[in-house]
Design a protein that fits this description.
Layout lengths: L1 E6 L6 E6 L2 E7 L1 H4 L9 H11 L8 E4 L3 H14 L5 H15 L2 H10 L5 E3 L2 H10 L6 E7 L6 E9 L9 E9 L4 H11 L8 H7 L8 H7 E3 L5 E3 L16 H7 L25 H36 L3 E5 L6 H10 L4 E4 L7 H14 L19 H11 L3 E3 L3 H13 L4 E4 L13 E5 L5 H11 L8 E5 L3 H4 L18 E2 L17 E2 L2 E3 L5 H14 L3 E6 L11 H9 L5 E4 L2 E3 L18
Parallel strand pairs: 1-4, 4-5, 6-11, 11-12, 14-21, 16-19
Antiparallel strand pairs: 1-2, 2-3, 6-7, 7-8, 9-10, 13-22, 14-15, 15-20, 16-20, 17-18, 21-22
This protein binds fe (ii) ion.
Length: 611
């Protein structure tokens, strides 16, 4: 039985295909169209999923859409009518958008996927999030917490899932507590994201990265705009916000009166914390003080978010009495909050969908249909995250030949890895292209950039060569799973799933930050990825080789893309990024691709979209 899950038309469109309950393929549309956060119809991702199984749309038993467009339309309509005339623009845009294609998704699916109407099912947005976690986790019973911006009406939910192996009759998802629009932790965080000069639905993790440069001095002010009950439910004071009646503004003048003027997008970020010697080239004392305030605001909203998440999670524990927790929804990508859930909540085991945002809804919708609507037994555990497209050696050769770059094929991978290690040890930067690309927003060793993490200067080197990003965006450490406990204080890193998917931030052990300065964020934390040999042998082996050479089982891992672009998917994307950046070598399958000397100079950042 083939079931295709589809999510689209909000952000991060995606498709996922199940064959008899096993995930065959899943991908976000942006990887194919090269348009970051592409929210259009995911025609490329669907085609890729069908091709992976060698089928056409006619072979599908069901296509499941991840939310209910008519209910969502009702929410937009009712909330904009409630704030009319301030919302006249939202109202107008909603009418145009929804009557265009969003409301008629059934027709679009019938036409584009070539299926009949009775094969198309719809699930609730938060049910899709819940199922993407519950039925991909290894748990047979778990508490569920979902948190995001908004789906139809729901913005967060608490419930319970059961997933039985063998007899599918017990597969259930019950979400009994919910928060409803406009009371939304995701939208609250997004409003601060916009105030701090970042793009909504894109720059939320930058707020998280900026927070450690500040002190949570504005917590009282944050609690003026949001009331938080002991059970984690929230009530937002809409006097400060405009997202319920505007498509462009999330906060209003009253918010500015409370938190000060918003930060200029793309302005330089420096303060006495980032530059204690005031040696930033554009140093201006007033600007530095202003930036410090922004960092303090970031620290405050981050702290309040963590408190709300912990309260919700504790409520889920109280109400279910279960020892296991699953989470999904965009807020579940807040890896600092997730780290605290792992360390401070009563749950013994936690599983989080790595595609926690709306792309993951495609997988959740398909899993929900298979297990709950059709009552089929559990088959699948999402042990790893490599569900995207892979490319043959012939395709790699064709792309490399077309690029005109020098390359060499290695029959013995150990020799290939030794060459790559030599490059890394010379403080050069490797592009790493292996196997199927990742599902969700994180590069986990299929499409990564790797470098030596030991010296703090490596941050600047990687930034100059490729990323051009702000100092508050830390680079991540990848660490051999069995040695993660030596470096980080969080318990159970070698047993639990979230660190495999780079979903938690943990404090380093006291003496370790100095050993890996390029991946230690201010305040002594790291968003690590733990790796096992069985899921990605070459990736494991390069880190292991680095450990054999230096004693340190850690590499710097960052996503293989230029700023503002999606992570690379094909060999062509990878080579284009290689040619347009200061990456020194690419390990692509069994090939080592190099650059002529004249191409190795660092490149200057061109005009890029703020990502
Ligand atoms: Fe969502």
């Amino acid at each position: 039985m083939f079931i295709l899950g589809v999510s689209c038309f909000y952000h991060d469109s995606a498709a996922a295909l199940l064959k008899d309950g096993m995930l065959v393929a899943a991908a976000e549309e942006e990887r194919f169209t090269r348009k970051k956060h592409d929210n259009g119809f995911p025609g490329n991702a669907i085609r890729f999923c069908l091709d992976s199984a060698g089928i056409t749309g006619q072979d599908l038993d069901y296509v499941v859409f991840y939310e209910k467009p008519f209910v969502k339309f009702e929410r937009i309509l009712l909330s904009s009518l409630g704030t009319f005339p301030r919302s006249w623009r939202v109202f107008g845009e909603a009418m145009i958008n929804y009557f265009d294609e969003k409301l008629w998704i059934k027709n679009t699916l019938m036409r584009e996927v070539n299926v009949t109407a009775e094969k198309i099912l719809f699930t609730d947005h938060h049910i899709s999030h819940a199922a993407s976690a519950m039925f991909a986790s290894p748990f047979d019973k778990a508490a569920i917490v979902t948190m995001d911006g908004v789906g139809e009406w729901t913005t967060a939910s608490i419930g319970k899932g059961t997933a039985q192996w063998g007899d599918g009759s017990e597969n259930t998802i019950e979400l009994w507590d919910e928060l409803r629009f406009p009371h939304s932790l995701g939208l609250l965080y997004s409003a601060f994201t916009a105030h701090l000069g970042f793009r909504v639905n894109n720059g939320e993790y930058k707020v998280m990265g900026m927070a450690p440069y500040g002190e949570p001095k504005y917590i009282d002010e944050v609690y003026k705009v949001v009331r938080v009950a002991d059970d984690g439910s929230i009530e937002i004071n809409m006097d400060y916000f405009s997202y319920h009646y505007s498509t462009t503004d999330t906060f209003n003048q009253k918010f500015v009166d409370l938190f000060g003027p918003p930060r200029e997008p793309e302005s330089e970020f420096y303060s006495l914390v980032t530059h204690p010697k005031k040696d930033h080239p554009q140093w201006d004392h007033h600007m530095a003080e202003q930036n410090q305030k922004y960092a303090d605001v970031a620290a405050s909203i981050q702290r309040v978010t963590e408190e709300i998440v912990l309260k919700m999670v504790n409520t889920a524990h109280k109400k279910t009495g279960l020892g296991k927790l699953v989470m999904a929804g965009g807020v579940a990508l807040n890896s600092v909050a997730n780290g605290r859930v792992m360390r401070e909540s009563p749950f013994k085991e936690v599983w989080i969908q790595p595609a926690a945002g709306d792309s993951g809804g495609a997988l959740g919708a398909a899993l929900y249909a298979y297990h709950v609507i059709l009552g089929q037994p559990r088959q699948f555990v999402q042990e790893h995250n490599f569900w995207g497209a892979e490319y043959s050696e012939a395709q790699m050769v064709a792309a490399i030949e077309a690029s005109g770059l020098p390359y060499k094929r290695f029959d013995d991978v150990e020799v290939l890895l030794d060459r790559a290690l030599d490059t890394i040890l010379q403080e050069k930067v490797i592009g790493w292209f292996q196997g199927r690309f990742e599902w969700g927003p994180r590069a986990l060793g299929s499409r990564s950039i790797l470098a030596d993490p030991r010296r703090g200067e490596m941050k600047e080197i990687v930034n100059t060569k490729i990323k051009f990003r702000e100092p508050f965006r830390p680079f991540a450490p990848v660490i051999l799973e069995e040695r993660a406990g030596e470096y980080f204080t969080t318990e159970g890193l070698d047993k639990q799933y979230p660190p495999r998917f780079m979903l938690i931030v943990s404090p380093f052990r006291e003496d370790k930050c100095d050993q890996v300065q390029a991946v230690c964020h201010v305040g002594g934390t790291g968003r690590m990825q733990t790796i096992r040999w069985e899921w990605n042998p070459l990736y494991y082996r390069i880190v292991e080789k680095f450990a054999e050479a230096t004693g340190i089982p850690v590499l710097l891992n960052t996503s293989y893309n230029l700023r503002g672009e999606p992570i690379v998917a094909s060999p062509q994307d990878a080579l284009k990024t290689f040619a347009n950046s200061g990456i020194d070598q690419v390990v692509m399958g069994p090939f080592l691709v190099s650059k002529p000397d004249h191409m190795t100079a660092p490149v200057k950042p061109g005009p890029v979209e703020l990502d």
